[in-house]
Design brief:
Radius of gyration: 29 Å
Largest sheet: 6 strands, antiparallel
Number of strands: 9
Order of helices and strands: HEEEEEEEEE
Number of domains: 2
Shape: globular
């Protein structure tokens, strides 16, 4: 029989510094496990998480003053008759699928191509007839002091589209007259540059 206590049928037990090393290893692993359990939600998600996706090619229509998507060959339907005529100076970038700050439920209307608020049962008045029809991404728009971009984008309480409210010209609203601002003052990211 061997002098140490190790046998094939039982685990080998070592005495002395091996036991201390074993317990120190268990302690270190426990502390590391506790940190990994506590930190991910607070630190890893905020530091390592990718920013929410965004879509550019949103433009100001010079005639109706609403925000519309310019990424298709057709330019939607403008309440000033015909199609939207875009401002060639600004290109807006909108965030979608975001859990961050901002008001959600801003959607692309697949009939007129304008951005409208889809959070109410009433879907506003669309220049292509009846009410707006949502399609595609669910955009989040910011109105807080941390947002960067162009201010004075507003919700029209008659047709429910996003329109630019800074100038005296309030555009043309499908519901008649000019747009009427209500709610938040939104700030849209216009940092996208043209080639």
């Amino acid at each position: 029989m061997p002098k140490n206590r190790c046998q094939l049928s039982q685990p080998c037990i070592h005495h002395g510094s091996g036991r201390r090393d074993f317990f120190m290893g268990v302690l270190k692993a426990s502390v590391a496990g506790a940190l990994i359990t506590l930190v991910p939600g607070a630190l890893v998600n905020s530091v390592l998480a990718a920013p929410p996706p965004n879509q550019n090619d949103w433009r100001l229509c010079r005639r109706c003053r609403s925000l519309f998507y310019n990424g298709f060959p057709k330019k939607g339907v403008c309440p000033a008759r015909g199609r939207h005529d875009f401002d060639r100076v600004s290109n807006y970038k909108l965030t979608y699928n975001s859990s961050g700050p901002g008001q959600r439920d801003w959607r692309f209307c697949n009939k007129c191509f304008a951005l409208f608020f889809d959070g109410y049962q009433n879907k506003g008045r669309c220049p292509a007839g009846d009410s707006h029809v949502a399609q595609g991404f669910n955009f989040s728009l910011r109105s807080d002091n941390q947002a960067v971009g162009q201010r004075e984008w507003r919700f029209c309480n008659k047709c429910e589209v996003m329109f630019f409210n800074r100038d005296n010209d309030k555009g043309i609203c499908t519901a008649g007259g000019g747009h009427v601002a209500a709610g938040y003052v939104f700030i849209l990211d216009n940092s996208v540059r043209f080639d």
